[in-house]
Structures are given as C-alpha cells and as structure tokens.
C-alpha cells in the first residue's frame, strides 16, 4: 500500500538509525550515495523525500539537516507532514482526457468550467481511467462498490448514466465515458 520513500542521502549512520525503526514508520527507508541519487532523480518518481546533511541543487522535496543531533520525533513528524503535503498536491491535479480532476475538492474542470462530483463518481472515473480498456459492470460493482460479482443490480448503469448527463450538461461532451459491448471505457 505504501509507496512513500524516505531517501537518506549519503549518510550511512542516519540510514542505520531509520532502518532499525522501519517497522514503526509509515514510509520506506532507502539509502543512496551521490552516484545513485543522480540516476534515481531522473526517473521522476514523485513519492519521495530526501533527508540530507548536504544541499542538493534543483531538488525541492528534501529536508536539510543542519544541526545534528536533532530531536528524532520532531524529525519524523516533519517527514510525515511533508508526505501529507505531497499527497495533497498530487491529488489536486489528475489529468483525465481534456479534464483536470481535483480529488481534494471533488471537482472536474475544463476551460474554467468546474463541476462538483460525488465520491462515487470520482471513484468510477479513476477506476475506468486506471484500467485502460473496457471494464465490465460486474468488475465495477466489485471494485468500486464492493458488491459480490453475482449480485443483480443496476447501480453501476444508473451512476454512469447520471455522470454522463452531468458531463454532457456542463461540458457538452457526449464521449467522456463510452459504452462498449461488455462494459464502459475512458480512452
């Protein structure tokens, strides 16, 4: 579940301390040398924070430890706050076709037009977007609603119909969610 990484940059003793406490932390701890970090930062992975005692130019998500020793619990709190801010920012702008979805405000927008969505509507869109191909009604029932696969209901169809209507009325887009032979798709 957790894909947040604390990268300890070129400070083996600090890494060893964090590694000893890894079972109590809400993030993974990784050690990187100067050579490794240069290669790693090129991968554009977003869910990391670098803990360092040296300034790293052109990197914004790092904590510079200038005064060691430091209060360890305050440092953990600071790291967790940075991860929360990072998650909040990551959820602020998700691109889906010609739209931006903001999970924090539950809005979809395009060309300065905003539309409020329900949590279920957001979940439908995200699930369809994540599964690049056609998604069956049974799959949506199971993954978005948590229903049993053999349950007979028209909940999915009703929600998709309402969501399409909202998108059409606000954005004049009749092709946002497409009906396919065996389900629905956003491409």
Q: What this model shows, in words?
A:
The protein has a 4-stranded parallel β-sheet. The protein has a 4-stranded antiparallel β-sheet with strand order 5-6-7-8, covered by helices on one side. The protein is elongated and about 60 Å long. The protein is built from 6 helices and 10 strands; from the N terminus they run E-H-E-H-E-E-H-E-E-E-E-H-H-H-E-E. It has 187 residues and is of the alpha/beta class. Strand 9 and strand 10 form a beta hairpin. The longest helix is centred in the middle third of the chain and has 19 residues. The mean pLDDT is 84. Helix content is 40%, strand content 21%.
Architecture blueprint of SSEs:
Layout: E1 5-9, H1 12-20, E2 28-32, H2 34-41, E3 48-52, E4 62-64, H3 72-90, E5 94-96, E6 99-102, E7 107-110, E8 113-116, H4 119-130, H5 137-145, H6 155-171, E9 178-180, E10 183-185
Parallel strand pairs: 1-2, 1-3, 3-4
Antiparallel strand pairs: 5-6, 6-7, 7-8, 9-10
Overall outline: elongated
Mean pLDDT: 84
Tell me the strand percentage band: 15-25%
Report on the biggest sheet. Answer: 4 strands, parallel
Q: Could you state the order of secondary-structure elements as H and E?
A: EHEHEEHEEEEHHHEE
- The portion of residues assigned to helices is 25-40%
User: Could you name the ranges where pLDDT drops below 50 across 5 or more consecutive residues?
Assistant: none
The helix-and-strand class reads alpha/beta
Strand order of the largest sheet: 2-1-3-4
């Amino acid at each position: 579940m957790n894909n947040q990484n604390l990268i300890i940059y070129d400070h083996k003793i600090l890494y060893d301390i964090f590694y000893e406490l890894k079972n109590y932390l809400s993030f993974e701890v990784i050690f990187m040398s100067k050579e490794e970090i240069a290669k790693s930062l090129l991968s554009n992975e977003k869910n990391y924070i670098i803990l360092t005692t040296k300034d790293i130019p052109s990197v914004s998500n790092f904590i510079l430890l200038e005064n060691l020793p430091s209060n360890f619990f305050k440092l953990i709190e600071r790291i967790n706050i940075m991860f929360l801010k990072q998650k909040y920012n990551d959820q602020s702008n998700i691109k889906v076709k010609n739209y931006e979805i903001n999970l924090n405000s539950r809005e979809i927008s395009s060309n300065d037009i905003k539309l409020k969505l329900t949590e279920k509507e957001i979940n439908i869109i995200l699930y369809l977007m994540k599964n690049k191909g056609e998604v069956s009604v049974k799959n949506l029932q199971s993954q978005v609603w948590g229903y049993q696969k053999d349950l007979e209901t028209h909940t999915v169809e009703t929600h998709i119909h309402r969501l399409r209507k909202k998108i059409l009325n606000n954005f004049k887009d009749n092709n946002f969610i497409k009906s396919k032979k065996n389900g629905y798709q956003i491409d």
